[in-house]
């Protein structure tokens, strides 16, 4: 895999077969995702990219960490690990094959993916005798105190070399926001942040992108800025 392939995946976003990790601060989540891929249709775990905020952070994942992680998955999974370098940074790509000895478990818990909504990466954690669903695509909400709209920083897409935001597909959050507006009269930046756990800047970028695409309309200014369905 080469850098243009990574850029294309970034533009497509998380899906039922692709998951981005900022880094390996939470090695457990990476193990859960690899297990889910093996139990479902296989997929790519990409470490070193902040997909939500379009940041190229780089990966510090080590061979020892990968080996220890895979040792905790039973039975053994087939994973091809590669590095893609860009400038002084690199990312890790873990290509997980759909397993032939399912179910696989990580720390004695079975993980699969919800394939009914491919734009949302939803991890299903199966406990015996209890089942729960863990939303791994949605980080915990961090609601900013800033209420005024902040214009996007010039050249934010340049933080990931070769990324063209105009060619990006809708994120799962944008798709969910359109559905939200079918049941609610308006949505604001602070509501978007609370619902999807993104920064003020990311919420602004994604809502503005929906406006530019003609999916929603912007009303008001400053603190009163809100978004409605088209022709409302």
What can you see in these coordinates?
The chain is of the alpha+beta class. It folds into two domains: about 5-135, Schlafen, AAA domain (Methyltransferase, Cobalt-precorrin-4 Transmethylase, Domain 2, 2-Layer Sandwich); about 155-230, Winged helix-like DNA-binding domain superfamily/Winged helix DNA-binding domain (Arc Repressor Mutant, subunit A, Orthogonal Bundle). It contains six helices and 13 strands. The strands form four sheets. It has a five-stranded antiparallel β-sheet with strand order 5-8-9-10-11. The model is unreliable at about 130-160 (pLDDT under 50).
Secondary structure topology:
Blueprint: H1 3-12, E1 18-21, H2 27-39, E2 43-47, E3 49-50, E4 55-56, H3 63-71, E5 73-74, E6 79-86, E7 89-96, E8 105-106, E9 109-113, E10 123-126, E11 131-134, H4 172-183, H5 189-196, H6 200-212, E12 216-219, E13 226-229
Parallel strand pairs: 1-2
Antiparallel strand pairs: 2-7, 3-4, 5-8, 6-7, 8-9, 9-10, 10-11, 12-13
How many strands, which pairing sense, and closed or not: the largest β-sheet? 5 strands, antiparallel
Assembly of the depicted chains: single chain
CATH superfamily of the largest domain: Schlafen, AAA domain
State the shape: globular
List the total number of helices.
6
Strand content: 15-25%
**Helicity range of the residues?**
25-40%
Observed structural traits:
6 helices, alpha+beta, 5-stranded antiparallel sheet, Arc Repressor Mutant, subunit A, Methyltransferase, Cobalt-precorrin-4 Transmethylase, Domain 2, 4-stranded mixed sheet, 232 residues, 2 domains, single chain
